Amino acid sequence: MIVVVLLVSLLGFRALGALGVSRFASWSAAAAHALAVMLMMTGSAHFMPSSVTVMPNYGDLVAMVPSFVPFPGFMVLFTGVLELLAAVGLALTRTRRIAGWALVPLFVLLLPANIYAAVENVTFAGEPASPLWQRIPEQLLYIGFAIWATGSLAPAARDRVPAQG
What we know:
Strand content: under 5%
Number of strands: 2
Distance between the termini: 49 Å
Strand order of the largest sheet: 1-2
């Protein structure tokens, strides 16, 4: 479901760019905003009460924290804040690159919880967790998407050498 949100948002923002909305004129800008939408969705889940059943909630996310991680409730809230901050960082052009690089270690650090959820059959909103074979490639997709969408591999404009002609 999260991948669908990411891809539909990407296509929606890019369509707006094709219609003349300059903010979404490039694929990478549209992708950064799509990733921000995804992170707003996933980050907000960290604060949802257990009575919310249409999406994962705080209780679901605490259940997916492996036992070796201290203070699971705090970690769920902390990572939720980080996801929401990253979403804001992606939406702002000035902070997009740093948000992209900050997301890489965050997505790597979230991987053990995703593996644990798949292996231990943790449920989310009453539904079984997606299988392990799906979760690891998804995390890798998000890492790659964060790097590509934020232009983190391209040199900053101030670092580029103008072409000699």
